[in-house]
Fold this protein.
Amino acid sequence: MLRVPRSLKLILNTINGESGTRYIVRGLIDGSLSALGVVIGASGSADASVIIAAGLGGGIANGLSNILGAFTAEKATLERERIQKEKSLLKKNGYLKKSIIYKKAIRETMICGLIDGISTTIGSALPVVPFFLFDIKTALYIAIAITVAILFILGVFIGKISKENVVVSGIKMVIGALAVAVLCFMVERAF
């Protein structure tokens, strides 16, 4: 029988858990919308390589930023909770840092940060792909379609989880994507 390493089990359990799912969805939304904004903003360039570099560069930066942001925010919350528990237990500061529960929470926090960043980077790469394959104008419309499709699918998924109407949930996400596209076109046209 195949043995799965313990660290991989922890990662898979986190991905399958509520936190992992939340960070995957959040990262895909963040990455795809921000990359769409970048490619629309750069679409005035006559050179697809400029759009690709801007989209991928922005996506990598956004992904790394989300790793740092998610880890920092989660760790701050975890630390606040630890300090409150130590005070309730009348223990000195740092007492619970040695606990198995605290160490597990820190590992999960690091994994969630990585999930968030990787999902963001993947989400940001998807609207850039058409610029490798098509002329700029066609690629731009395909990038918008890809982003709208991603957000509709994520909206349906969110609707299913929250036991809401999946079509309405998907349409809400599409409206968000189209609003981002319109605003970014307005900015691109202004300059």
Summary: Residues 6-132 form one domain. The two ends are 61 Å apart (CA to CA). The mean pLDDT is 87. The chain is about 85% helix and 0% strand.
